[in-house]
Amino acid sequence: MSSIVVIGAGASGLFAAGLCAERGNNVTLVEKMPRCARKVLITGKGRCNVTNADYDINSIISSVTDNPRFLYSSLSDFMPYDTIAFFEERGVKTKIERGNRVFPVSDKAVDIVDCLVDFAVSNGVKIIHSAAESFEFNSDKTKIEALILESGERLEAERFALCTGGKSYPLTGSTGDGYELAESAGHSITEIKPGLVGMNIHENWVSDCQGLSLKNVSFKLYEDSKIVYSDFGEMLFTHFGISGPMVLSASMLVGDLKKHRYYAEIDLKPALETEKLDLRIQRDFEKNRNKNFINALSELLPSKIIPSIVSLSKIPPSQKVNQITKEQRSSLVNVIKCLRLEIVSLRPIDEAIITRGGVSIKEINPKTMQSKLISNLWFAGEIIDVAAFTGGYNLQIAFSTGNACAKSMGEIEND
Fold first, then answer.
1. What is the pTM of this model?
2. For 274, left (φ over 0), alpha (ψ -120 to 50), or beta?
3. Is residue 359 within 8 Å of 182, Cβ to Cβ?
C-alpha cells in the first residue's frame, strides 16, 4: 500500500484519487475550495456535458487542438464509453444529444459531482479542504517529501499528483496555483491563454443584436484568406461580439492576432443556395410589394438583426419593395449568405471555459502522466498543456489522464 496525495478535487483529481484508493492505497485529496469540483458544477450551463459519444479514437484525437498526439495512449486506454459506463454503473443515467454530447438524464451537473465525490469517499479517500502552499523536496530535488498546506499542516507521502486545473473561471478555484507548484518542481509552463471563449468583434452593429441566438447557421473562421474552422449549429450575439458553441470551438484556432487577420463568416440561411434564397426573397417581396424594405423581412430574418442587415445591404430602409432592383436584391443575398465579422481579440481568461497552455508535455510521460523530472510526481487534467473543442472532450481528457495517472501511481511497487 502506498501513501498518495492528490492536489485538486476537480474531475481529474476526484477520479484519480478514487481509483488509487480503490486499488488499496492510502489517499489524501487536497482541495482549497469548501466544495469539490466547483467548475464541473457549471459546465454545460449547469447540465454537465460529461463526455462525447465518439467511439473512434482517431476522431476523438482530431477534436483535440493542443498536443493531440500526447493524449493518444491515455484516451485509447479510457474511452468515452468507459466514462459513460462508470457513471451508469453508479446510478447516473446518461443521454446523447446533438453532436454526440453526453449529459446526465437529470440535466443536473451536481449528479456528476456527487457521483465522483461518493466514488472517492466510499473508497476511503480523505478530503482536506485547505490550499496547497508548497512542496518540500529531498536534498537533490529529485523527489517530493511532503506537501505544506496553507494551514501549516505537513502531508508526507510517497507519491503526489497535481490535478489543480488551469486559470479559467477563477471563482471556482482555478487560479493557476498548480502552475507555481509545478514550476517549483522544475517544470516548464507554456504560455497560458483563454480557450473556448467568446470573441470581441470590430463591427459596432453587433452590440445592437445583443442577446440574439441564431440556430442552424453556418459558421466559418478565416485566418487571412484560409478557412481554418467550419461548423453548423448555434451562435449568440453579445454586448462584446459573438459567443455560443461554434464560436467557442473556433476560438481554439485563433492564433496571433498581430501576425494574422482573423474574421468570421456567417451564413444565415445555409439550407438555401444563393439562387434559391433569391427566389425566396422575390416571393416575400411580392407579398409585401407596397411595404417599405425594412418592413418586408420579418418572415425571413429574426427581428433583432433586420436593421443591421438592411444597413449592410445598402438598400434604403424606406425604399418601397416594388422598386428594389435585381442588383440591390443580389446585395441583400450576399449579406445574408456571407455576413462577415472581424475578430479584434478573444475574451479574457476569467471568462474562458478552459485554459490553453500549462505544464509542458515534453516533461510528462504520455502513457503514465508521470513527471520526467521528479520521480514521485504525476499530473492529470487541465494543468497539462492539452485542450480540445467543446462537446465533452475536455472532461473526457480529465478522466482519461486521471485514469492513466492513477494506474501508474497506484499500481507500481513502493520505492
1. 0.93
2. alpha
3. yes
Domain assignment present for 287: no
CB 28 within 8 A of CB 126: yes
Number of independent structural domains in the chain: 2
Please list, residue by residue across 309-319, b when 16 or more beta carbons sit within 10 angstroms of its beta carbon and e when fewer do.
Answer: bbebbebeeeb
Same domain, 94 and 144: yes
Which residue among 346, 361, 395 closes a domain?
A: 346
Task: Tell whether 384 and 245 lie within a shared domain.
Answer: no
pLDDT at 90: 98
Residue 248's domain spans which residues? 196-269+340-346
Helix (H) or strand (E) holding 357: none
Q: Which residues contact 93 (CB under 8 A, 6 or more apart)?
A: 104, 105, 106
Low-confidence ranges of the chain (pLDDT < 50): 413-415
Nearest to 301 by CA among 328, 325, 326, 266: 266
The set of cell numbers assigned to 182 is: 509545478
pLDDT at position 414:
42
